Amino acid sequence: MVSLISPSLPFLFLLILHQSSSFSTVDVSADSDIIIETCNRCASSDPNVNYTLCVASLESVPKARQSDLQGLAVVAVRLAKSNMTRAKSKAKNLLKAKSLDPYMESCLETCRELYSNSIADLEDSVKAIKSSRYGDANILISSAVDVPRTCEDGFDEEGLQSPLSEENDELFGLTVIALAITSLLG
Ligand SMILES: *[C@@H]1O[C@H](CO)[C@@H](O)[C@H](O)[C@H]1NC(C)=O
Ligand SMILES: *[C@@H]1O[C@H](CO)[C@@H](O)[C@H](O)[C@H]1NC(C)=O
User: Fold this and answer.
1) Is 80 exposed, middle or buried (0-12, 13-18, 19+ CB in 10 A)?
2) Whose CA is nearest to atom 5 of ligand 2?
3) What is the mean predicted confidence (pLDDT) over 58-83?
């Protein structure tokens, strides 16, 4: 085995030398590319990650460019959390309608609770990421990823048109990105 590997070692070493030197000369503004690089890695590791949404949502946060991977995971979780908060407000508003169909009401109430619990989970996951408890963060974000589907399933089962489908699509997109980035942390 060893004799098979060793002839290629000098070549490998040259390759590494070449790559690291081209990195330092060509890629001067390395930190401005952390978003692109991270979204690329996420999209290739998880087919549910929408690369365009990943880049656009992270670039909408000015400090994301200066972040390291851990900081970027926090940014992504906070984007998902703020979207979860919006979805919760929408569910609350829909629940205010007069003479709401009781099935519709119960589905909306379920979604509102799911969103509410998920906001708390995502907040806890920020703390977990910041203290390098990535396994815990992963579990918390994973349950947030399931929320939009579970909410939609409620309407489907009653044969109702979901009034939250747009929000749930966005939520799925953003939570999946948060999970993929957090998974890169180990
Ligand atoms: C990915 O996200 C972009 C930006 O939000 C959106 O326009 C596009 O439709 C999404 N693509 C898929 C396949 O969902
Ligand atoms: C969050 O949701 C709102 C509406 O539900 C949407 O307009 C907005 O683009 C979403 N934010 C992100 C970062 O995708």
Assistant:
1) buried
2) 167
3) 96
Take atom 5 of ligand 1 and give the residue whose Cα is closest. 53
Q: What is the pLDDT of residues 14-69, one digit of tens each?
A: 344 444 433 433 444 444 589 999 999 999 999 999 999 999 999 999 999 999 99
Name the closest-CA residue to atom 13, ligand 2: 57
Q: Which ligand is nearest to the CA of 53?
A: 1
pTM: 0.83
Q: Are 38 and 181 in contact (CB under 8 A)?
A: yes
User: Which ligand is closest to the CA of 57, given by its number?
Assistant: 2
Nearest atom (ligand 2) to Cα of 56: 13
* Fold (topology level) of 33-185: Butyryl-CoA Dehydrogenase, subunit A; domain 3 (1.20.140)
Task: Provide mean pLDDT across the span 85-102.
Answer: 96
| Tokens standing for residue 19 | 């790559």
Distance from the alpha carbon of residue 71 to the mean position of ligand 2, in angstroms: 21
The domain locations on the chain are 33-185
